[in-house]
Amino acid sequence: MSGLGMTPTKARDAVPADTEPLARLWYAGWQDAHRGVLPEELAKVRTYEHFLERLSLAPDHLRVVGTEGDPLGFSLCDGDELNQFYVDARSRGSGLAQLLIADAETKLAERSVETAWLACAIGNERAARFYEKCGWHRACIYTSQLVLPDGVFALDVWRYEKRLAQIDG
After folding, report:
1. CATH number of residue 29's parent domain
2. Which residues pair with 86 in a beta bridge?
3. Domain assignment present for 165
4. What is the pTM of this model?
5. Any idea what the Cα angle at residue 154 is, between residues 36 and 34, rounded to 5°?
6. Residue 51 has what pLDDT?
7. Is residue 17 one of the residues assigned to a domain?
8. How far apart are CA 52 and CA 124, in angstroms?
C-alpha cells in the first residue's frame, strides 16, 4: 500500500526497508528547502549517497511516518536536538508534519530533555513558520560547524528552542 492512501496516525521506529526511500526523501527535501538559500558549496555535497551514508550512521532515534518501505516523513533526534526533520512534499498540508514533530517532542521529553532545540537555515521561511506554529521560538542565530569532505564549513543558522513538558517515567 502506498503512503498516499491514508495519512498515518502515528510515528514508528525506522526499519531497514526504510533506508533507501528515506535517503531519497531527505535528498529531495533538502534540495527543496535549501536550494537558493544555502551556498552552492553545500548543495554539491548533499547528494543522495551523502544522505544514505548519514542514515547508516544515524542514532537509534530515527522515527518515521508511513508504511515500511514507503516513509512519508522522518525525524532524527540527537541529544537535546531535533537534528533532522523532513516531510515528503506529497504529504504537505495533511497534518503529518504536526504528528511527526509532536512525536519527536514526546521522545525528547521521555529522555528528560527540558529544552529542545533545532537549527533552521536562514531564509527557510516555510520551515520557520511551521516551527513557530508548533510552539518553537527563534532563540538566536548561531554558527553551525558542518563537516564536509574537504574540511569544516561554518554556517549561520536560526536556532529554535522549545521548552518541553516532562513525562513521568
Report:
1. 3.40.630.30
2. 74
3. no
4. 0.90
5. 20
6. 95
7. yes
8. 23
Number of folded domains that form the chain = 1
Sheet of 115-121: strand order equals: 12-13, 62-67, 70-78, 81-87, 115-121, 151-163, 137-148
> Could you tell me if residue 26 is inside a domain?
yes
**Which cell goes with 76?**
532524527
Residues 157/119, Cβ–Cβ less than 8 Å: yes
Query: What is the residue-wise DSSP string for 103-114?
Result: HHHHHHHHTT-S
- Do 27 and 42 form a contact (C-beta atoms < 8 A)? no
Q: What DSSP letter does each residue of the chain carry, written as one string?
A: --TTSS--SS-EE--GGGHHHHHHHHHHHHHHHHTTTS-HHHHHH--HHHHHHHHHT--S-EEEEEETTEEEEEEEEETTEEEEEEE-GGGTTTTHHHHHHHHHHHHHHHTT-SEEEEEEETT-HHHHHHHHHTT-EEEEEEEEEEEETTEEEEEEEEEEEEEPPP---
Q: Which domain holds residue 101?
A: 12-119
pLDDT in tens, 120-160: 999 999 999 999 999 999 999 999 999 888 899 999 999 99
Cβ count within 10 A of residue 119: 18
The whole-angstrom separation of Cα 77 and Cα 62 is: 7
